[in-house]
Amino acid sequence: MTRLLIGLAVGGFLTIINTCPAFCSFLPKWKNTRHHNEVAELLIDTVAEASILKEGGPSIKTTSEALTLSRFDKDGRVHTLAVQEDNGQSVTGIDISAELGRYDTNSFDVIRGMAYEEVVKTISHSHKRISLKYTDLLPSIAGTHHLAIGINYAEHGKETGQVKPFMFPKLLHTDPAIHQLHYNDGWLLDHEVELGIVFPSAVCAAADLNNMLVGFLVVNDFTDRAELMRKMDSQNVTGGKGFPDAKSKKGCLPTGPYLVIPRNWRNFIKELNLQLSVNGVVRQNGYARDMVWDIEKIVDRSLSVKGKTDSYYQNRMIKLFEGNCIPANSIIITGTPAGVVFNAPTKGFIFGSVTKYIFTGGFFHKKMHPYILNEYLKKEMKNTRYLKPGDHIETTISYLGTIKTTIVRDNTKTDQRPASLTRLK
Q1: Which of 15-19, 247-251, 421-425 has the highest average model confidence (pLDDT)?
Q2: Is-contact 198 214, C-beta < 8 A?
Q3: What value does the mean pLDDT of the chain take?
Q4: What pLDDT digit, counting tens, does each position of 113-154 carry?
Q5: Which of 154, 242, 362, 390 has its CA 20 to 30 Å from the CA of residue 87?
């Protein structure tokens, strides 16, 4: 209804321009009907976006700037919705799977082979708008094998005691934006708001990005710091040991409500603000433009280790990704800004632990670095800032929507690995 009223108003405005040139000579000259239509669509989208903001709904880009795509299940098939409105509880838009007769698992595949303008035209020419509740939405990206970057924001590096970005695989099924994470006793559950990027086809060189659309989504890279501290190599943290195990537990990769594909992704990324709150209190707040490695650098560094089996997961060595190119429709998780629960041990703590190590004869049983790490793990077990059952986490990035996570207690004991991952060599 809102768009209809806006359309009528804009149509009337353009009609006045055409029919009263003597009285409207101060207005710009309009050359043709096609230009009229373009202006009308731009005005409609702009005013509609302002209307949504006024109503308190999340801000999404107009289709002239970015495609906002959600996935949902209907009659046993995956559909892709081109989102035009989001009121914070539900999304409204055009089912482009139905319009195109394409029901691919991932949204990029639904629009494969189409120019950006063709997709926009498909959306604008359809009047079959549907609405879906957030709870009806699937994860914005499917899949189990993803690539993550550690320490990609300088301030986060300072709080964790590391300064050099590094890479590791994250191996688990994605979860939707309305999300429950089942907590196990003994975890030190930490939060990490992160920008995810997705490519429509395999990327074999950074230069491929010059002729490619790029998809963006908000993710939360939940981490069990206890598992990480038990398995990491404290003398070679950037080697990544322990990170896949600590970050690949079931439920530790929820995605936002949609995948956003901007017309100009290099400009788009400069606008993105990352925020995370726990029980209404903001803990993380940063900007994607502050990443240490930008997207091209991430691609370059990832491709430099192609084929190498140097990531440690579930007591075996695995590759960062299969093949010689970064696979299509895998999420690259680009790092988190400062504000996580975990902080590196202070110099005072380390000095105290070393003193204890020497005077209690700890050197008879363990090497010094693992000893200090174990002492710090015991200390962190008393840290009440780690997430626990009953906590509510909201993970948000500008234009990419919000993940709403509730931590609940899990009394079951199951293998955390997806079935498809048990075959990894």
Answers
A1: 247-251
A2: yes
A3: 85
A4: 999 999 999 999 998 999 999 999 999 999 999 999 999 999
A5: 390
Higher pLDDT, 2 or 226: 226
User: Could you write out the three-class secondary structure of the chain?
Assistant: CHHHHHHHHHHHHHHHHHHCCCCCCCCCCCCCHHHHHHHHHHHHHHHHHHHHHHCCCCCCCCCCCEEEEEEEEECCEEEEEEEEEECCCEEEEEEHHHHHCCCCCCHHHHCCCCCHHHHHHHHHHCCCEEEEEHHHECCCCCCCEEEEEECCEHHHHHHHCCCCCEEEEEECCCECCEEEEEECCCCCEECCEEEEEECCCCECCHHHHHHCCCEEEEEECCEEHHHHHHHCCCCCHHHCCCHHHHHCCCCCCEECCCEEEECCHHHHHCCCEEEEEECCEEEEEEEHHHECCCHHHHHHHHHCCCCCCCEEECCEEECCCCCCCECCCCCEECCCCCCCCCCCCCHHHHHHHHHHHHHCCHHHCCCHHHHHHHHHHHHHCCCCCCECCCCEEEEEECCCEEEEEEEEECCCCCCCCCHHHCCCC
More confident: 288 or 419: 288
CA count, 13 A, side-chain hemisphere, 199:
22
Give residue 2's pLDDT: 47
Phi, psi of 215 (to 5 degrees): -100, 150
The two beta strands, 273-278 and 281-287, are antiparallel
CA distance 159 to 236: 17
Amino acid at 307: G
Average pLDDT over residues 164-189: 96
pTM reported for the whole predicted model: 0.84
Q: Which residue has the higher pLDDT, 245 or 9?
A: 245
328-344 pLDDT tens trace: 999 999 999 999 999 99
Question: In Å, how far are 49, 136, 193, 194, 380 from 83, measured between CA atoms?
Answer: 12, 14, 23, 22, 43
> The tokens of 95 are what?
């089912």
